[in-house]
């Protein structure tokens, strides 16, 4: 297998809220896209892991994602252990993505920043020839950090205006999480509330670059530009 872009995330439904629009847009351009979820969200209040896996598969179809799998690492206590790094590194050697999207390296949920660290280190390990004798080395060329929940200035914003509705539909396929209903005395957010919240965030980032909806990313290295005349994002 060889993918153009692979998003690695801690929980099923993370990608749908962070970089799903970008995945959809890349698939529409003809790139091979994929998602690797590290846990099945088994500590979540609502739904069972099996339900979430089914919902994730449905969301993948909506996002035009060609390959999605779940490594079933322990949810809510994700750890960057040697065994987790090795499992992920070997998986990256199998999938051979050119671009990897990771969660931003700081955040409120420990699984998110651990997934970021684990993903980065696994990408590095995956490039070592002697890591594993049964798979060929592969180091992704580019790592993008999805910074939607981080209070940082993005390195760039992807215009997802044309993909926003499809991303929304993908998220809503997690009916165990976002269906209406009362659980533990609290009403879970209904579709309208989710739509408003995600819309507001996507509008905020879109506004930074003069488009309707956007998804923000951070890269650690300086961006390389080939053509300054073709650059987007108005200055004044
Ligand atoms: Zn999450």
Q: Which helices and strands appear, and what pairs or packs with what?
A:
Elements lengths: L4 E5 L5 H4 L1 H9 L4 E7 L9 H14 L4 E7 L8 H14 L3 E5 L6 H16 L16 E5 L9 E4 L4 H9 L2 H4 L3 E2 L2 E2 L3 H18 L5 E5 L18
Bound molecules: zinc ion.
What would you report as the Rg, rounded to the nearest angstrom?
Answer: 18 Å
- Along the chain, the helix and strand elements come as EHHEHEHEHEEHHEEHE
- Please identify the structural class as seen in this structure: alpha/beta
Instruction: Characterize the overall form.
Output: globular
Sequence stretches where pLDDT stays below 50 over 5 or more residues: none
Instruction: Specify the helix fraction band.
Output: 25-40%
What percent strand? Answer: 15-25%
Ligands: zinc ion
- Counted by DSSP, the helix tally is 8
Descriptive account of the structure:
The protein has 236 residues and is of the alpha/beta class. 37% of the residues lie in helices and 18% in strands. It is built from eight helices and nine strands. It has helices spanning 15-18, 20-28, 49-62, 82-95, 110-125, 164-172, 175-178, 191-208, and strands at 5-9, 33-39, 67-73, 99-103, 142-146, 156-159, 182-183, 186-187, 214-218. The strands form two sheets. Strands 3-2-1-4-5-9-6 form a seven-stranded mixed β-sheet, sandwiched between helices. The chain has a two-stranded antiparallel ribbon with strand order 7-8. Helix 5 (110-125) links the parallel strand 4 (99-103) and strand 5 (142-146). Helix 3 (49-62) runs antiparallel to helix 6 and helix 4 (82-95) packs across helix 5. The mean pLDDT is 93. Residues 10-11, 14, 109, 112 line the site of zinc ion.
């Amino acid at each position: 297998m060889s993918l153009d872009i692979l998003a690695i995330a801690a929980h099923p439904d993370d990608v749908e809220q962070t970089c799903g629009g970008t995945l959809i847009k890349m698939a529409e351009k003809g790139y091979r896209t994929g998602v690797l979820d590290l846990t099945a969200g088994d500590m979540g209040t609502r739904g069972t892991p099996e339900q979430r896996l089914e919902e994730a598969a449905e969301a993948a179809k909506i996002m035009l994602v060609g390959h999605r799998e779940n490594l079933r690492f322990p949810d809510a206590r994700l750890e960057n252990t040697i065994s987790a790094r090795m499992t992920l590194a070997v998986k990256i050697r199998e999938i051979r993505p050119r671009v990897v999207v990771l969660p931003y390296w700081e955040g409120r949920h420990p699984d998110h920043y651990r997934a970021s660290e684990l993903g980065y280190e696994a990408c590095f390990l995956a490039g070592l020839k002697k890591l594993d004798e049964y798979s060929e080395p592969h180091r992704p060329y580019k790592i993008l950090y999805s910074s939607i929940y981080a209070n940082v200035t993005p390195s760039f914003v992807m215009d997802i205006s044309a993909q926003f509705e499809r991303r929304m539909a993908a998220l809503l396929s997690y009916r165990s999480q976002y269906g209406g209903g009362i659980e533990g005395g609290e009403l879970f957010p209904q579709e309208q509330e989710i739509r408003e919240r995600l819309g507001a965030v996507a509008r905020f980032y879109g506004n930074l670059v003069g488009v309707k909806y956007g998804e923000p990313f951070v890269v650690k290295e300086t961006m390389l530009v080939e053509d300054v005349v073709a650059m987007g994002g108005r200055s004044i």
